[in-house]
From TrEMBL:
Mg(2+) 2 binds at E315, N317. It is found in: Cytoplasm. Keywords: ATP-binding, Cell shape, Cell wall biogenesis/degradation, Cytoplasm, Ligase, Magnesium, Manganese, Metal-binding, Nucleotide-binding, Peptidoglycan synthesis. It holds the Pfam family Dala_Dala_lig_C. GO terms for biological process: cell wall organization; peptidoglycan biosynthetic process; regulation of cell shape. It comes from Peptoclostridium litorale DSM 5388. ATP binds at residues 138, 183-185, 191-192, 221-228, 314-315. The gene is ddl. Pathway: Glycan biosynthesis; Cell wall biogenesis; peptidoglycan biosynthesis. This is D-alanine--D-alanine ligase. The lineage of its organism: Bacteria, Bacillati, Bacillota, Clostridia, Peptostreptococcales.
Length: 363
């Protein structure tokens, strides 16, 4: 078999642009260049696509656009006799066997780019449109988890419209159904962007206003004193769940700064949890991944409440942080799959799944 043409897509309009650059640079460094032709496709913060030959260092530093070769776009309608692929600004075509969208947050992890790649019939790594969008939207995700009977912390949802029309009633509803401290989150974001913790009504209103500056829909949760336990899922026909890891934040909660800027936040792998807890978490992870109809990859995050030992599912990240030292790859490393092999596995699963689904489409 010849080399596989991989479109490594990074950046994007999401608030998690910089996190994507770090993940993608790390993936690019680790990928076997004998096995893959790697086409680097960056998306700027404004949403412009560029094909470039940047180094991983320039990706990480944000200087990758200096290495642009040509503008790029997905060619969703192949001209006759041509394969689909990524079309460049001069009309030439990069023939792509599989895309690896190392993108986090809106536009990357929410089903948008997945839909674009579906239209173009290009195989891609990870969850499809439905699973991506369900896992991205915290409000919709919680509804599915309720339906499946998967435990999660008590919550309320509201919209900007509702809040602007009837602020007092909304605040009263939240206060009568939940107790402080509260966590206020934009429904469609990640990396803790726009999330705040409130101990008082004033802080709640302020937190809601912050969250509404990111999204028109928000989620308010009862804040618990918790340990944060995460597992990695790898699906290749079977759903495999890794050993658990624990994320320990240096801050009051696992904020953006605590996740990416502070040195003191750490991960403990394997997490010090007992076999019963491992078994419950692993079963819930499989059930939740199935419930959203996941594919390929996800990191599933849980809370264990310190006071009660209760286990709650917090969220599914369908394209988790993917630097060599991120939780997802480290969890697989601890479970026996090295970083480079993990990337190979995800790519081969994506290509096999695509071949299978194309076979169905023909019948
Ligand atoms: N209900 C909660 N109780 C306690 N801590 C919480 C709660 N919800 C969120 N957090 C804290 O905020 C962080 C970010 O919340 P999360 O829902 O994971 O959002 P994101 O999708 O941005 O990662 C969590 O890792 C945790 O530290
Ligand atoms: Mg999280």
């Amino acid at each position: 078999m010849g080399k596989i043409n991989v479109g490594l897509i990074f950046g994007s309009k999401s608030g998690e642009h910089d996190v994507s650059l770090k993940s993608a640079a790390s993936v690019y460094r680790a990928m076997d260049k004998e096995k893959y032709n790697i086409y680097l496709i960056g998306i700027t913060k404004e949403g412009r696509w560029a094909y470039c030959n940047c180094s991983p260092e320039s990706m990480e530093s944000g200087d990758w656009l200096d290495y642009e070769i040509k503008g790029a776009k997905i060619n969703i309608i192949p001209s006759s006799g041509r394969r689909t692929g990524i079309e460049l600004s001069d009309g030439s075509l990069l023939e792509i066997d599989v895309c690896l969208p190392v993108l986090h947050g809106p536009y990357g992890e929410d089903g948008s780019i997945q839909g674009l790649l579906e239209m173009a019939e290009i195989p891609y790594v990870g969850c499809k449109v439905l699973a991506s969008s369900l896992a991205m939207d915290k409000a919709m995700f919680k509804k599915i988890m309720v339906f499946e009977g998967i435990p999660q912390v008590d919550y309320e949802c509201t919209t900007k419209n509702e809040f602007e029309r009837n602020k007092d009633a909304i605040v009263e509803r939240i206060e009568s159904n939940l107790t402080y401290p509260l966590f206020i989150k934009p429904a469609n974001l990640g990396s803790s962007v726009g999330i705040s913790k409130a101990d008082t009504r004033d802080e709640l209103i302020e937190g809601m206003e912050i969250a509404f500056s990111f999204d028109k829909k928000i989620v308010i949760e009862k804040g618990l004193d918790v340990r944060e336990i995460e597992v990695a899922v790898l699906e290749d026909g079977d759903i495999k769940v890794s050993a658990p890891g624990e994320a320990i934040s240096c801050a009051d909660f696992y904020s953006y700064d605590a996740k990416y800027l502070a040195k003191e936040s750490e991960t403990i792998i394997p997490a010090n949890v007992n076999p019963d807890q491992i078994s419950i978490i692993s079963d819930l992870a499989k059930k939740a991944f199935k419930a959203i109809d996941g594919n390929g990859i996800s990191r599933i995050d849980f809370f264990i409440e310190n006071e009660t030992g209760n286990i709650y599912l917090n969220e599914i990240n369908t394209m988790p942080g993917f630097t060599k030292s991120s939780m997802y790859p480290k969890l697989w490393e601890a479970t026996g799959i090295a970083y480079t092999d993990l990337i190979d596995k995800l790519i081969s699963v994506a290509m096999e799944n695509h071949a299978k689904s194309s076979a169905y489409a023909c019948c």
